[in-house]
Amino acid sequence: APPQLFKEPHPTRKFYTVEPLISTSHCFSGYSSHISQFVALQSYHNKNYHFTCISEDNSIYTIRIDAEKQQISVKDTYSILTGHSFALYESNIICADDNESVKLVRDNYEVVELHGQRTSRATEHGRCVAASNPVIVIGNSDSSLSLYHSNEFIKLIPTFTNKITCIDCLASFDLIVVGTSQNKIFFFTTEDGTPKCCIDTNGATPELLTITKKWGFVIMFGSLGHKKVIDVYTTNGQLIIRQEVTMSLTCWTTFSSRNDFDFVVAADNKGKIYVFEAFYANIGEPFYETHNEISSIIFSTETNVSFAFAKNGNIYMSPCNIPLT
Description:
With 325 residues, the protein is mainly beta. The protein has no helices and 28 strands. The protein has strands at 26-28, 36-45, 48-55, 59-66, 71-80, 85-89, 92-96, 102-105, 111-114, 128-132, 135-139, 145-149, 152-157, 164-170, 175-180, 184-188, 195-200, 205-211, 218-224, 227-233, 239-245, 249-256, 262-268, 272-277, 288-289, 294-300, 305-310, 315-319. It has a 4-stranded antiparallel sheet with strand order 1-28-27-26, with no helix packed on it. It has a 4-stranded antiparallel sheet with strand order 2-3-4-5, with no helix packed on it.
């Protein structure tokens, strides 16, 4: 049996929470010229949120939201980041495009290309990217992985699978997870890409993968025929729980509470927003309904406020009370 990472039990619940910064939800009407496909929360100060966004036409722009005054300002940077898969690398956005290149946006919005090794062949399959300082991992179109440390290419890792569907990494747990169309999840080390294990998902095709920050739970959302499931795994690939769900999730983000519990905020294809504790993966009723398809979701742990960015350009700001049961 593989060694267990944790020797202590899951901590006892403490009924302590932080009241959200805002008490009511608000919708900021969208701009047709600024519809985001990726959003990063860059900073929060004095009830003001600053986001960097990548639009559907690949232009980079910024958004500032004053939560107290319910005001929004949008500003173009006149920079372009071409690609279809993005991730946040510290305060920088990185991108993997279909031309086998990896690009990074600097703080001044200058776009630079990272030097790496191109894969042996290109296919019609897209690419996916994940990052956790100092690690960047690219799921290539030929199902290999490109591993970078501190912006420098390290190695190309073959997976010998058909197609990579999703990917995530977390340097603090020395872990890369890769979902495939053949109903597998690969576990590698971030240090040098050494394989740890490969698990069968019991028929579920991974669509979303994430690793939680405090406990390192590997959360998978996937399709099992006409069913949808959420699996929770340990860092060694052992299944903790499988929950069958009725909704189809399109995007999610994770956060940790001040008493060290990991949570997931997720949006489904009908624009409903949910929050649930990662360990149990027990999704209840949505805490907000946007009635629009969501492309990105952001959660501010400082203020317990979620931001859902819709594909029609609307931005939905909503308070989120962290569940304690």
